[in-house]
Fold this sequence. Notes:
Blueprint: E1 4-8, H1 13-25, E2 30-31, H2 42-52, E3 55-60, H3 68-80, E4 83-87, E5 102-104, H4 116-126, H5 136-174
Parallel strand pairs: 1-2, 1-3, 3-4, 4-5
Amino acid sequence: MADLYITYGIRERYWVSKLAAALEAEGYSVWWDHAVIPGANVRAESQQALTEAKCALVIWSDTAVEDHWVLVDSEQAVKQGALVSVLANNAAVPAVYQSLEVSDLQDWAVGDLQDAHFMNLVETIKGYCPPSQPSRAEKETQAIARLERMREESERKSRERQLREAKMIHKRMSV
């Protein structure tokens, strides 16, 4: 089960790929239709992923507002109580969704995890579900801490070895 399900208009595929990668870097597992196997029952797989997702993102764009499946997915996500609207370009969000909070990513520096627009989206998503995995930054912090512990352990063992050697030398000199 993915944390997030993304529905979007096909013209935004590249932009969505960058958004999905950025969200994965924040520790979210993301389902979007990039990995659907040709010939598979795409709609059934998509519906199952949406039903199982903790939160759904609808990427509003000029093509998405007229896309039947984006509208169907959005309606289902609202019924599940887990829809986050994301504005990708200057599209008019359908009236039925205008009362919901919309995260504006029109000015997002695509791929920039420190961009204020992206950070606001992540905070909105956290209101629905926390990430299921550590973020890239958390993994790096953990790796640095692990290396520091290893370095300290190595230094401790080196000091102990030097102390043993010094004691052995002192013992031989005493005899």
